[in-house]
Amino acid sequence: MPLTILRAGNEQLPYTFDHPRYDVRVVETALPQGDYSLPGYEYQVVVERKQVDDFIKCLQGDDRVRFKKELRRMSRYERACVIVEASFGDVVHGRYVSDMKAKTAVANFTALWVRYGVPFIFADNRGRAEYLTHEFLRMYAREIEKRFKILTKGQKAA
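The structure corresponding to this sequence follows.
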């Protein structure tokens, strides 16, 4: 049975999950947070996707204020992450379009990570970011399935 992934309707350059390794049905919808989630768990699991330039932009000025609010909301989820379509090395070496110094960028996102507990995952490139998004959601769905089996097994015993 295919995994159903919810994709935010306003997602720019959305993942299609059309590689043969995926058995996925994508449903475009309005999500309360982030870019990708699972049906019925829209308030428990979320993935926010960022291209590197957008990621760096979110660390500055008015965008930082908005991003902090977003991370605060994501921190209430059981599982949440920001997947960046770049390597950590891209950030460290300033391979992005911005005047922000690499050291400042690293300090800023690390401070946000510590404050809100939402990890930033550097996936090297778009294809790997899509793969990680799929795996993150697939593993969460498996975990929920295991929990459900344990609960229903306990109810039958009682």
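DSSP finds five helices and six strands in the chain.
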